[in-house]
Design a protein that fits this description.
Elements (H helix, E strand, L loop, with lengths): L2 E8 L2 H4 L8 E7 L2 E11 L11 E5 L4 E4 L10 E3 L4 E6 L17 H15 L19 E7 L12 E7 L1 H4 L8 E7 L11
Antiparallel strand pairs: 1-6, 1-7, 2-3, 3-4, 4-5, 8-9, 8-10
């Protein structure tokens, strides 16, 4: 684990209630339900003044949601950086996890193995790993991708569509997310024909 010592002070419930989501705090670190013997940088998911008893909810910079009872001596509590405090071990980011989808034209096992070997040589054998592998035949077709409001008014004729991406491969659509309050509309690709008369 990659950690560093940070000088910090443990907060009481009253002190936490004065914090907001913009304040940097430290909470007990954990990964997928496994608690670690250190802390992680985090922020409150809601302003502390909205606290109505129970536990405070914080989200770590690693995406884990943590419920903390600050006055419980058996728990790690909530900490804030303070030069007059004590040293605690704080988990540091060691890198970035990429969920990578690759389209390999005329893909074969040999070409995938070659790609994997090249990535391991570039970044290190202990860094590049295959978490899951899905080999899917990709048809040589394209679609047009639009966004429209998720709650469109009845009788509307689709004039409020926004062309998010044009002529995209269907497999790539799975990895995109629509804007808040919008939904995707996928249609067969149509070439744009310019009928403007020319002189």
């Amino acid at each position: 684990m990659n950690t560093e010592k940070v000088t910090a002070r443990r907060l009481t419930a009253d002190e936490i209630s004065g914090l907001g989501p913009q304040d940097n705090i430290f909470v007990p670190a954990g990964v997928e339900g496994l608690s670690l013997d250190c802390y992680a940088p985090a922020f409150l998911t809601a302003p502390g003044k909205d606290f109505e008893g129970g536990s405070f909810v914080a989200k770590t910079v690693f995406g884990e949601e943590v419920h903390v009872l600050p006055d419980n001596a058996d728990e790690g509590g909530v900490w804030i950086a303070d030069e007059s405090g004590e040293a605690i071990e704080v988990l540091q980011g060691a890198g970035v996890l990429l969920n990578l989808a690759l389209f390999v034209p005329n893909g074969s096992k040999e070409s995938l193995d070659s790609l994997y070997a090249s990535a391991r040589e570039a970044f290190g054998a202990g860094v590049v790993q295959r978490w899951s592998e899905e080999v899917v035949a990709v048809p040589d077709v394209k679609v047009d991708l639009y966004e429209e409001p998720a709650r469109a008014r009845k009788g509307s004729n689709g004039q409020n569509r926004d062309r998010r991406a044009l002529d995209i491969y269907p497999t790539r659509v799975r990895f995109l997310e629509p804007s808040d309050g919008w939904k995707f509309i996928v249609e067969p690709h149509k070439e744009i024909v310019d009928d403007t008369p020319t002189i």
